[in-house]
Amino acid sequence: TPQAYGNYILNFTAGSDLCDISAQASASYSLAPHTADVSATSLDFGVLGFGANGTVSVSVSNPQGSPMRVRLQLPVHPDITLQSPAATDTVLQPGEDIDIILRLDAATAGDIADLLRIFTTQVCDDSVDIPITGRIDAAVAAVSVPDLEAWIGERITIPVRLDNASNLDITGTRSFTADLVFNRSMLWPEEITSESGSATYTTVTEGDNLRVRIMVDQTASPAPGAMAELTCLVLLGNDDTTPLTLQEFEWSEGTASTTTSSGSFLTHGICDAGGQRLIALPSTMTLFQNVPNPFNPTTEISFYLPEESDIDLRVYDAVGREVAVLARGKYSDGTHHVTLDALGFVSGSYFAVLRSGSEIRMKRMIMMK
């Protein structure tokens, strides 16, 4: 029995003892492969979102010396169609090849596990099974909170950012809820805003942490950027760092496969001396944010001078009118505190302005009755 492809000659002899007759004969034949050459053993569409499309291809060629019939049994997945060739039954001449191109129009969410079967006939029948894989996600998104830092008494804005997304509009993905967890001795939430919708929040105390539930209603699918911004007052807390942990993120309208990443916050102006937590003073003239803020009717304003200076501290309303003079003249180096009594002021924004020579510092304050 031949073990390799090639041309062979078979010789055989036939004889009869009765008549002492014998005869010889020979036959020639060729042993050749009858299978097709197939360029791929598997096909993968990757991950696509609703409305997207993609193609995969495999090449089939006839390496034999005679025509080969090729028949295709297509995948059963409803989103996969045959883009090329036009027919599922064709004949390849010797040396001829075809490209089989499958197209996926993503409309059915879930994993893809299917099969393309290629039947060939040349002398004998043969078949090749090619697994097809992939995944269709209705929509995808990535949401994060950044790393931030600030001085005690300042205010920071913590954004909940949509870093990237696809197909949110197709699935109607708009509004969301999320929890932001941090050390409640270091940060205290004051207000939340959203340029893409309306935002509200609630708080729950969990030991040393504060869980802030953020709720944002949006009338349209958001574009990459800040979806909500939580403003917090920086406090002299029991630590100088805290994680800004983003948890329980859920789209309340629509669906999207979403990944989240958390951030952190670092407080400046803290030093440890003699076991006590003290404010490390800055090296330049500094006007600290008033406390409390918003206020009614009084609030304390502090400022720091690195050296003895002539200063002027006044308060102006939102249209620039002077409403109070809090400090004037020569002040020693160090931290100083003054109180603003806003009894009789109307609700709104006011500005504390500290001047010394050519230096000017300003802080916005909110009077809320």
Structure description:
With 369 residues, the protein is an all-beta fold. The chain has 3 domains: 37-137, Immunoglobulin-like; 140-272, Sandwich (Immunoglobulin-like), CATH 2.60.40; 281-367, Sandwich (Immunoglobulin-like). The protein is built from 1 helix and 31 strands. The strands form 8 sheets. The protein has a 6-stranded mixed sheet, with no helix packed on it. The protein has a 5-stranded mixed sheet with strand order 4-11-10-6-8, with no helix packed on it. A hairpin with a 4-residue loop joins strand 1 and strand 2 (21-31). It is rod-shaped.
**Major β-sheet profile:** 6 strands, mixed
Q: Which percent range describes the beta-strand content?
A: over 45%
CATH architecture of the largest domain: Sandwich
Question: What is the count of distinct domains?
Answer: 3
CATH class of the largest domain: Mainly Beta
Gist of the model:
The protein is built from 1 helix and 31 strands.
Please tag this protein with its features:
1% helix; Immunoglobulin-like; mainly beta; 6-stranded mixed beta sheet; 3 domains; 1 helix; 5-stranded mixed beta sheet; 369 residues
Please describe the topology of this protein.
Blueprint: E1 6-16, E2 21-31, E3 37-38, E4 43-49, E5 53-61, E6 68-73, E7 80-84, E8 89-92, E9 97-105, E10 110-122, E11 124-137, E12 140-144, E13 148-151, E14 155-166, H1 168-171, E15 176-183, E16 187-193, E17 197-206, E18 209-218, E19 225-234, E20 241-251, E21 257-261, E22 263-268, E23 270-273, E24 276-279, E25 286-287, E26 298-305, E27 309-317, E28 322-331, E29 334-341, E30 348-356, E31 359-367
